[in-house]
Design goal:
It comes from Hucho hucho (huchen). Among the domains are: 18-159, YVTN repeat-like/Quinoprotein amine dehydrogenase (Methylamine Dehydrogenase, Chain H, 7 Propeller), CATH 2.130.10.10; 160-330, YVTN repeat-like/Quinoprotein amine dehydrogenase (Methylamine Dehydrogenase, Chain H, 7 Propeller); 535-683, YVTN repeat-like/Quinoprotein amine dehydrogenase (Methylamine Dehydrogenase, Chain H, 7 Propeller). A hairpin with a 7-residue loop joins strand 47 and strand 48. The protein has 9 helices and 57 strands. Helix 3 runs antiparallel to helix 4 (742-753). It is 13% helix and 42% strand. Strands 6-7-8-9-13 form a 5-stranded mixed beta sheet, with no helix packed on it. The protein has a 4-stranded antiparallel beta sheet with strand order 1-57-56-55. Strands 2-3-4-5 form a 4-stranded antiparallel beta sheet, with no helix packed on it. The protein is mainly beta.
Length: 828
């Protein structure tokens, strides 16, 4: 196999952007955060993804700004390297090889050329003891350098990044673990340890959860599991230390952060509220509530103008210093699990799966951004352990994306299972789905499968359930309603066996339903049972029809570790193979199928065509655990690979989710090179910072550019729209609560932008009069003899009629016309 055909598994999107504390650049224009094996760069004003910094081969565990150069960042990873990046251009400047897995990184302006990292005390990942070491970065011209000068600072520290903090501009460093606080002074080269009692009644509620040091004064703020915040002072002496206690959080304090000047302390926890403590007035505090999910990290920009909070639902909220949310960067929400499978929205090509509790999230795989959430349950979610609430367990789209079907369940202890089937219609006006029909208790037991018919002639939904039946739901049109509603059209069964799965053929002419060990094939047009298919022992786990040239095949997996293929033309078993297939997925754009198999605690992948005995691609030990959810997503731009092993990636891309909720996909080296080249086209604002140099030369340069543009582009001299009109000022500067209705303001605003016809005609007439006057003046100056001969004008001597003004203008134009080309022609 040639090199460009190599296939590798990558994290294309959906990485955890809340894994580590984000970083805001000095000018507050960009936000950087660890995202899987790369560092993502976002715009703080537009929320858009700018580009990513790729180079690490394992999970990125920390990102910090370079104190000596505000256009550079350090990143550390579990691959044992620290990398220096130019984040504006996305260029890797240098790689420092540490040789140990790194769990967090810290820098201080006072310690130039040194980074502080947390590494295991033993040279293997499974060590439970960690130490904070100072790494002296060597100065070398090589891009890849081995950093060998390491010195231990603190032993037995927590690998959590919020457990270590620099204080008083780098004079000391504080670390917390369990019930102990340790402070190390660099000047004295001495450390002090302070311990708290575990508490007689509340167990280990006094345990430290996070720490943050005051940037200007000797003060350390620590968060605790009981929701308290302690401010430590006089800790440079072992016995004379003091602390004061602040308490608002009812749960554990997850994160603490001082502002750059130390005037305020920010805290967050499970309450989804950002608490703003005033440092000089400890009893005074402000709140920013309802941020949507538990706060895990807080970061502040170096100039203090922006705050940002990371949340447990994989979200970063950007907040202005006036405590106002200005932007939200939402990643793929990863809850406790995925019950709906992975689905592709036919309209937006977005990945659809479970999001927030009771919601479906629409996630763009190409932009790595959540598009929106759809509230399915439409009930207030109560965050309380042991409370049974509705969960979305099934979802399906029709072929055109006009309809969405969802199933929600709630099982109470000692009570019957509650099931709701909901049908949603796509509304083009709101660009979202609107609830059309709700069916309470569509089945008497749990729904095991749900599919729309792909046939364009009818809109039909089929559901299978453990109540021994499958049902067909049909959209009925009624003249008294604007849109039809759904009703049950057919109820089917087979010898009181429980149906576990179903599948439609590509044209919708056949429906296959698996009743335990029997496969039944039905005609949806007449609901006639056409045939039953036999197979080796074991209940049918999954069914899937072939596509395109392989549409005559039906594939199924069983609980007895068998993968079977039936020929529908002969109604016989074509072939079978012993495989423990946990998931079978068909590519809707080709004949290819993907089978994930479980073996020895890991998953293997086989990509094949039902008509060929040899697989197109296979990979062993894909990931640990079983793969339960996967989907083929259509490509925006088709690949043109001719290699046999990579042709299955030309039209679609295979995505799957592991047991650790990581979204992975497959990519070729050619595709990686193309993405890397396109990522270098930065979406950077062209505005220039107002510096003294710009004030001297910027104005002159701008005038030159305007002149050059006016010469090259005649349309640049068109009439400018009115600036500073009363309507615009009223619209932008008046408080919203006193403004008139939007319809009134809109009409007023549009009229202010229009140029009236009368004024345009007047300007045109004035221009014509001025041009006539200039022509007359130029004639008088060009030929003074005309004034002498005016006495014998031919109109007076011979009685010729007088000329009109229009005829005189035409004669002047003929007179001024250049006839030199005619004389040169006669001379030749």
């Amino acid at each position: 196999m040639v090199e460009h055909a190599e296939i590798r598994m990558v994290r294309r999107g959906g990485s955890k952007i809340n894994f580590r504390e984000p970083v805001i650049t000095n000018d507050s224009r960009f936000l950087l955060c660890a995202a899987g094996e790369s560092v993502n760069v976002y715009s703080t004003s537009t929320e858009e993804f700018v580009h990513d910094l790729q180079g690490h081969t394992d999970l990125v565990t920390g990102v910090v700004l370079n104190p000596s150069n505000h256009l550079q960042v350090y990143s550390c990873s579990a691959d044992g390297t620290v990398r220096l990046w130019d984040f504006m251009d996305g260029i890797l400047i240098k790689t420092f090889i540490i040789g140990y897995p790194i769990y967090s990184i810290y820098v201080s302006e006072k310690h130039g050329g040194v980074v502080f990292v947390v590494v295991p005390m033993a040279n293997y990942k499974s060590s439970e003891l960690f130490q904070l070491v100072a790494v002296h970065l060597p100065r070398s011209g090589d891009q890849e350098v081995e950093a060998r000068e390491l010195s231990a600072v603190l032993c037995d520290v927590s690998p959590h990044p919020g457990a270590v903090s620099f204080g008083r501009e780098g004079e000391y460093i504080a670390a917390t673990k369990g019930l102990q606080l340790e402070v190390f002074f660099f000047k004295k080269q001495k450390s002090y340890r302070f311990s708290l009692k575990s508490g007689m009644k509340k167990g280990v509620k006094n345990a430290f959860t996070c720490v943050s040091c005051h940037p200007k004064e000797d003060c350390i703020a620590t968060g605790h599991a009981d929701g308290k915040i302690r401010l430590w002072r006089n800790f440079n002496q072992k016995k004379e230390y003091t602390y004061t206690t602040l308490h608002w959080h009812h749960g554990a304090v997850n994160t603490l952060c001082f502002t750059p000047e130390g005037t305020n302390l920010l805290s967050g926890g499970i309450e989804s509220v950002l608490v703003h403590w005033h440092y000089t007035q400890e009893n005074q505090k402000d709140f920013l509530p309802r941020l949507g999910a538990a706060i895990t990290h807080i970061a502040v920009s170096p100039d203090g103008s922006l705050f940002c909070t990371s949340h447990s639902d994989n979200k970063i909220t950007i907040i202005q210093s006036c405590v106002k949310v200005s932007a939200i960067i939402q990643g793929l929400v990863k809850g406790d699990g995925v019950w709906t499978d992975l689905i592709i929205d036919p309209r937006s090509k977005a990945l659809v799966l479970n999001g927030k509790p009771g919601h479906l999230q629409f996630y763009s795989l190409h932009r790595d951004k959540q598009l929106y959430n759809l509230d399915i349950v439409q009930q207030e979610y109560i965050n309380e352990e042991g409370l049974d609430q509705f969960e979305v367990v099934k979802a399906a789209f029709d072929a055109r994306g006009d309809w969405l079907a969802t199933v929600e369940e709630r099982r109470k202890k000692g009570a019957e299972l509650e099931i709701n089937l909901k049908l949603w219609a796509y509304d083009k006006l709101t660009q979202s789905f609107v609830l059309n029909t709700t069916v309470t208790a569509p089945h008497e037991d749990r729904i095991t499968g749900m599919f729309f018919s792909p046939s364009p002639e009818t809109t039909m939904l089929v559901t299978t359930s453990l109540d021994d039946h499958f049902k067909a739901w049909l959209l009925a049109d009624h003249s008294d309603t604007k849109e039809g509603f759904w009703s049950c059209d057919f109820v089917g069964g087979y010898h009181l066996l429980k149906p576990g799965c179903c599948s439609y053929s590509a044209d919708g002419s056949l429906l296959a339903v698996g009743f335990q060990e029997v496969v039944t094939v039905w005609s949806p047009a007449s609901w006639e049972l056409l045939t039953t298919l036999s197979q080796p022992p074991g209940a049918i786990r999954d069914l899937c029809f072939g596509r395109l040239s392989c549409s005559k095949y039906l594939l199924g997996t069983s609980t007895k570790n068998q993968l079977c293929c039936w020929n529908l033309l002969t109604c016989s078993l074509e072939w079978s193979t012993p495989m423990d297939v946990s998931l079978l997925q068909a590519d809707p754009l080709s004949e290819n199928m993907a089978a994930f198999c479980s073996q020895s605690g890991s998953s293997d992948l086989f990509v094949f065509k039902p008509s060929e005995p040899r697989p197109l691609y296979s990979q062993k030990a894909l990931c640990t655990g079983k793969v339960q959810h996967a989907v083929f997503a259509p490509r925006d731009q088709m690949l043109e690979s001719c290699e046999e092993r990579t042709q299955w990636l030309n039209r679609s891309q295979l995505y799957f989710i592991t047991q650790d909720m990581d979204l992975l996909t497959f990519s070729t080296k050619t595709e990686e090179d193309r993405l890397l080249a396109s990522s270098k086209q930065l979406m950077v604002d062209d505005s220039v910072a107002v510096t003294p140099f710009y004030l001297l030369l910027g104005k002159h340069r701008r005038q030159q550019l305007e002149k050059q543009e006016a010469l090259t582009n005649p349309m640049a001299e068109r009439t400018q729209l009115p600036q500073g009109s009363i309507a615009i000022k009223e619209l932008l500067h008046t408080p919203a609560h006193v403004l008139p209705s939007a319809s009134f303001l809109c009409a007023m605003f549009v009229r202010s932008l229009l140029v009236s016809r009368s004024s345009a005609r007047e300007e045109k007439a004035e221009e014509e009069m001025e041009s006539e006057k200039e022509e007359e003046d130029s004639e008088g100056e060009a030929d003074p003899r005309l004034g002498e001969s005016a006495a014998w004008a031919p109109s007076e001597e011979f009685g010729a009629p007088a000329l009109t003004k229009a005829q005189e203008r035409e004669l002047r134009k003929v007179k001024t016309f250049d006839h030199s080309w005619l004389s040169s022609l006669l001379d030749s």
